[in-house]
Amino acid sequence: MSTRTLVTNLAALEDGPVSVSGWVETVRDQKKVQFVILRDESGAVQLVNPAVRELAEDAGPEASARLAITEQISALAHGSFITVTGDLKHDERVKLGGLEVKIGTLEVVTEALPETPIAADSSLDKRLDWRFLDLRNPKQALIFKVQTTLLHAWRTYWVERGFIEIQTPKLMASASESRAELFEIEYFEGKAYLAQSPQFFKQMAQVAGFGKVFEVGPAFRADPSFTSRHATEFTSVDAEMSWIDSHEDVMAMHEELLVAGFTAVKERHGAEIEELFGVEVTVPATPFPRIPLARAKEIVAERGYVVPREDEDMDPEGERQIAAYVREEFGHEFVFLTDYASNIRPFYHMRHEGDPSLTNSYDLLFNGVEISTGAQREHRVDVLVAQAKEKGLEPEELEFYLDFFRYGAPAHGGFGMGLARVLMLMLHEASIREVTYLFRGPTRLLP
Ligand code: AMO
Predict the structure, then answer these.
(1) Residues of 45-61 as b/e, b for ≥16 C-beta within 10 angstroms?
(2) Looking at the domain covering 7-110, what would its CATH class be?
(3) Mean residue pLDDT across the chain
(4) Which of 55, 153, 327, 354 has most Cβ atoms within 10 angstroms of its Cβ?
(5) Where along the chain do its domains lie?
(6) CB under 6 Å to ligand 1: residues?
(7) 266-312, pLDDT tens digit by residue?
């Protein structure tokens, strides 16, 4: 183990010898003194070197060493990775953390090329080309700390309630959502498809008697769009549970889960999010507002925006309008839109008992963007077959899935939620590209 001290831990040390390692953020090379700002994963610290520019004839080894360090610092490229030993000194006058390290030895572990390919004002695309450099910005690192906290809180919520974590295969023999957004790949002598959702397999866990399951894993959609909310590969957060009376039970769990996640993020990172993103994280009140989709469209129309007829779902502008309404009426950032029409929902959604034109399903919107779809599932195989046929699907292709329901299936339901969408909206970022570790889109497979 190295003896280096994390920058964040320097404040607690007394004045004396220390060793720190990190990236060169800035160099101020003045005639008599040089300052280097060094950053590691925990923070930044000022290093100082009393510069020696030339040696007097009677100069001792101390002055020679100082001259060597001075020359090293003058040649330091931004981004180089260095290790420094030196003397820590607490000094209130130092703006950065009230301390500095007087350099004793400086080792350039790896030198960076002199020109940094991105700057603060580079385009998002350029920054993504150089994602590893882009992520050195503490604001970017915070996104992934928040994500870690969110996922930890969600896992804890589920584990404490008896949910079982599963990993379902991402190579499949059929589509699970729509054939239109399916990646087909060569698979030995035949074809395979990349999983669009763990849908079928999380339902399988219900007929296997697991009761309640969750999964956090990749999902793939061959979606050619370039919107701020679509990726071709994204992290899907899924849950599925048995013994429900309706989708209302799923929604009750879903909102509790979000409260648990937002509470943890606010407690742990609230101040830093406010400082770096200028955003206050609000823990949502429960129950979240619920509005049937048909009523939501009326509300939007009353506000002067008519959702295009051919688009029976809410379009993005409709979502923004309903979010504005919910904010004004309920002071809430979330809304469940419920009771979607059967013709715009997948075959596996359960339909209303008395009105098969509607489903026991919902979309969850956060600040005007869909973050999740959930539903009660149809567990009666004859009804399921009829619904699949009605959607133009060949039951033969779905035989393996339909079999699940031929050997005793409980009522069940669940949801899938896009992790990056939650983060984007929580941090008021403009695109999921900003909050995805390595974004994948129609024209991006690198790095
Ligand atoms: P759906 O297709 O609505 O439902 O997807 C669920 C959630 O996943 C996210 N999402 C995406 N995120 C980024 N890029 C994409 N291309 C993308 N597509 C979807 C969204 C969306 O709300 N099986 C159902 C879920 C269920 O009923 O359990 C499903 O996949 O946040």
Answers:
(1) bbbbbebbeeeeeeeee
(2) mainly beta
(3) 96
(4) 153
(5) 7-110, 128-435
(6) 177, 197, 199, 221, 223, 230-231, 234, 236, 238, 370-375, 414-418, 421
(7) 999 999 999 999 999 999 999 999 999 999 999 999 999 988 866 67
